[in-house]
Amino acid sequence: MGRWLVLGGTRFLSRTVAATALARGHDVVCVARGESGDIPDGAKLVVADRDVPGSLDVLRGERFDAVVDVARMSYAWVRDALDALAGDAAHWSFVSTISVYADSATHGSDSSAELLAPLEAIDDDHPADAPDTYGALKVAGENAVRATFGDAGLVVRAGLICGPGDLSDRFGYWPARFVTGGRAVVPDTPGHPAQIVDVRDLATFIVEGGERRIGGTFDGSGPRTTLGALLDEVADAVGAPDLDRVALSPDALVAAGVEPWSGPRSLPLWLSAADQGMVARDTSAVAAAGLRARSIGDTARAALEHERKLGINRERRAGLNPSDERTILASVAG
Q1: DSSP result, 46-112
Q2: What is the pTM of this model?
Q3: 290, part of any domain
Q4: N or C end: fewer C-beta atoms under 10 angstroms in the chain?
């Protein structure tokens, strides 16, 4: 077994990667500030703040069989990690995002599609909350990894990651809502594309990628389906006996002030036509490379368990609160 370094390890995907590597018999070192949560039992924590230049120098010269970096909104983090650690790493994985693509509308595109222009720093012209900033920073990070490792580096452009540990509410809203039962607003768009990846499946692919020394760039998501089929599977897995899905047209939802995807008064997984290509990627390449996607029902059950730990009735980052839903049903559905 090997010695692994996970840059992160305290939240969601990076923590699941660390836990998966441990379960497969590897020694795991996690680098984090130690403020976002605990690392998995059995891992070693190295406390470092990657916003501080040179913070990874404490590991310079140490040998790792695999390094996994999930750096989110900082090209400098990626650059500094490569500078300090790449020379002694046998394999490097970088978790990127499907937000790197210049075209978010076209269905069926793959990892060869045109990318956004790379961005190396947030500034006045490219603020953190601008639509393309996140993806453009990831493009710069990808380029840095390829410049160092060439085709031997593994770049995984993650899709919508779901399952235990998710704090975005974009998938978890649905099992939490369906298990509550009653009349539930859903988009009347059954053919709308949908595509998710369970955090456990993505983590397993990344760990196996390090073990097998997989290189290349992949869209890290599961197979394409439709929103109607996805919601059917969630309802079948966790829906209450009295669940009554009330399908409202996109026009009716917009008129009622419902937003797509995320944020207050929204319906997660529902997207405008301009963005639906993000959940309709051709992921045949990553499936051929070894990403095995579990059933949506399995993900829904695990997401519901996590939702119950957080509190199903909490204030959410995405979805309709009960009061808004009742108002919408009264005014639109009758």
Answers
A1: EE--TTSTTGGGGGTT--BSEEEE---S-HHHHHHHHHHHGGGBS-EEEEEEGGGBS-SS-TT--TT
A2: 0.97
A3: no
A4: C
